[in-house]
Design brief:
By secondary structure, this protein is an alpha/beta fold. The chain contains twelve helices and ten strands.
């Protein structure tokens, strides 16, 4: 088997040391869960969290959402995390504090031993300005890398900026460019993940999708359905995409490379955009 491309619209962070949250995680409607062994787990609870997650993984991976694990970024805890939680059914490892491609390759080498079937992907987290300078190299560091994510709060802290849609925009766009250039999925919202109480989360997801993001993480289950809707194409866009493909398929049969639709020229790049929209539509 080989690692497949990911199409996560919503990813819910779940503290790895919270039995109650773990028990309910697969009922939240997320496309993927990120079981967290890092920031949400105090340093003196790391081993207990590993053991709890390991005990519950067999049940968690049977649910509808794909299961990912955010491991710790330091070498000692990272090694213990990987040995404990990597097993068949885990979709990806979220790798924090990823400063360069070397760290990705190190984790990939460990996964080659722990996951010889090549099922487990890697999602690097870019959390500093120096890491952002290496985003493209990180994104293409290994075939296991399936997505790229900006850790907005850590990034803002290291840059000494107040996290907001305006202050993070440049960095967010660089994540999109690096991920798309590497052929993987850019994850994120234009604003910080910490602003989970916003009543406009669906609108934010729609605008983030327009900037090129394919999905986003959330720390609150109440935002999951809004993310799913926001990162799915609207019915209007689906109908437009269907018309584009119909018109260009007809044009190709007439040996035409471009035609006009609603007063605008459409050609191969527009056809590919339409195909992408239809691939992301919700099932009827």
């Amino acid at each position: 088997m080989t690692i497949s491309s990911v199409s996560w619209r919503s990813l819910l962070y779940v503290p790895g040391n919270n039995d109650k949250f773990l028990a309910k995680a697969q009922t939240r409607g997320a496309d993927a869960l990120i079981i967290d062994l890092e920031d949400s787990v105090p340093s003196d609870c790391k081993q207990a969290a590993r053991e709890m997650v390991a005990a519950k993984l067999s049940c968690l991976i049977k649910g509808p959402a794909q299961v990912c694990i955010r491991i710790n970024g330091d070498l000692v805890n990272m090694a213990d995390d990987l040995r404990t939680v990597v097993r068949p059914g885990v979709a990806a490892i979220f790798l924090p504090k990823c400063e360069d491609a070397g760290k990705v390759r190190l984790v990939a080498q460990a996964l080659d031993l722990l996951d010889p079937m090549n099922d487990v992907g890697i999602v690097p987290l870019i959390e500093s300005p120096s890491a952002l300078m290496h985003a493209y190299d990180i994104a293409r560091a290994d075939k296991r890398v399936v997505a790229l994510l900006l850790g907005s709060e850590d990034f803002a802290t290291s840059c000494q900026i107040t996290p907001s849609e305006q202050t993070l925009l440049g960095a967010k766009q660089q994540i999109v460019y690096a991920a798309r250039a590497a052929g993987i999925s850019p994850l994120g919202l234009l604003d910080s993940i910490a602003n989970f109480s916003s009543a406009d989360i669906e609108d934010l997801a729609v605008r983030s999708a327009a900037f090129g993001f394919s999905g986003a993480t959330s720390v609150h289950p109440g935002n999951i359905q809004a993310l799913n809707r926001g990162f799915s194409p609207s019915q209007e866009n689906v109908e437009w995409a269907e018309r584009v493909m119909e018109e260009l398929d007809s044009a190709e049969r007439k040996s035409l490379g471009a035609v006009t639709l609603d007063g605008r020229m459409i050609d191969k790049p527009v056809y590919e955009r339409a195909r992408s929209i239809l691939a992301r539509r919700l099932p009827r």
